[in-house]
Specification:
3-stranded antiparallel sheet, alpha/beta, single chain, 39% helix, 2 domains
């Protein structure tokens, strides 16, 4: 069977919108009627609700996941001349957040099973200029945090979690975002918890860091003073409409996460025995949340094209590691520098994944993949 268009997309918001569209519109209307659009009651309520969900003392909404990374790094003391160790297998914002602060991203390799930062590779990348380490919970797979925590503690480094794809994922019973010194979340619309545009949050258990991020996100204002600026800050506030919409979605996040895990289980069972490397389903140590269900295949491009012809959408996250991007050519990295990362970039393929994906459609994806290998 050849399809002329994709009828099982990689991701869609249609089902979610059908479920909660009326509540989302009512939340936006509530803000419009209130006349309070910046750092009002919706922000305050969402900060408290999201902090509880993550298991941290403090959360602060900001205007994007990229801003969340930048503010977390700046609050951790990263600045001109510093270095920050991070995985190259990530979206480029993890690195540009370092660069915009005048610091240098130093790229490390990833674990071949989880594709998250490998502590041994990170340790080799440290220099006297290293100020922080960023662990990225890619695809919703928790990084192995204990070795990274030990490394950061022994070298007196800040440990930042990039949780853009890992809302409610757990590592040894702790929710990602509650483990390092600071964490950055994205609420881009396609994320497991998504706004109606760009949005993000910074989470921490440290009151001093919380206050610093609060000042930095709000033009350097201290204590909410309108014209009292204690530092050079940014205009990175989360607007009230986005906060209100996120409050509609947050109570449903656990159910949506369980639905994603059910889809992942269907894939895992149905694709067993094929010449694919499947993502970890989780164990007693960690529970991923499957922002993406990503397999590895030596014939990745051929498989993707075959699935497209059968009406099934796929995605490649990410085809070019950050250390080989033209934007970072000046750092002098060469192909072969990070072998696990580079092999993954050639092989990864994400299959359709969202909370509303039916078991029947997941089964169709499985059968299409199996047909390719037959």
């Amino acid at each position: 069977m050849t399809a002329t268009a994709v009828d099982i997309p990689l991701f869609t918001l249609e089902g979610q919108q059908a479920e909660i569209g009326a509540e989302v519109k009512a939340a936006a209307a509530r803000v419009l009627d209130s006349g309070v659009f910046i750092l009002g009651p919706e922000n305050k309520a969402f900060d408290a609700e999201f902090a509880r969900a993550v298991g941290v003392k403090y959360s602060l909404g900001v205007d994007s996941g990229t801003s969340a990374l930048e503010l977390a790094l700046e609050a951790a003391g990263v600045g001109p001349g510093d270095e920050v160790v991070l995985p190259s297998f990530t979206f480029i914002a993890t690195a540009t957040a370092v660069s915009v602060l005048g610091a240098k991203p130093v790229f490390a390799d990833v674990d071949p099973e989880t594709l998250t930062l490998d502590a041994r590779s990170a340790e080799k990348a440290l220099t006297p200029k290293t100020k922080a380490v960023v662990a990225v919970h890619i695809y919703g797979q928790p990084a192995d945090m204990d070795p990274l925590l030990s490394l950061a503690k022994s070298r007196r480094l800040a440990l930042i979690e990039d949780c853009a794809q890992s809302h409610l994922a757990t590592y040894k019973g702790r929710v990602t975002g509650s483990i390092g010194d600071l964490a950055a979340f994205s609420f881009y619309p396609s994320k497991n918890l998504g706004a109606a545009g760009d949005a993000g949050a910074v989470a921490t258990n440290d009151a001093r860091l919380r206050d610093l991020v609060d000042e930095l996100r709000n033009c350097g204002r201290a204590g909410g003073g309108r014209y009292h600026h204690v530092r050079v800050g940014h205009n990175s506030r989360l607007d009230e409409i986005q906060a209100a919409i996120l409050r509609v979605k947050l109570p449903r996040l656990e159910a949506w996460t369980a639905a994603r895990r059910r889809v992942a289980a269907i894939y895992d069972e149905g694709l067993a025995g094929l010449p694919l490397k499947l993502p970890p389903l989780g164990s007693g140590m960690s529970r991923p949340v499957f922002h993406l269900y990503t397999v590895r295949c030596e014939r990745r491009d051929a498989l993707a094209e075959d699935l497209r012809r059968r009406g099934i959408g796929t995605g490649v996250y990410y085809p070019t590691p950050v250390h080989l991007q033209p934007a970072y050519a000046a750092l002098g990295a060469r192909a072969g520098a990070l072998p696990v990362t580079e092999a993954a970039a050639r092989e990864v393929l994400s299959l359709p994944m969202h909370a509303e994906l039916s078991a029947a459609d997941a089964g169709r994806v499985v059968e299409a993949v199996r047909r390719f290998f037959r």
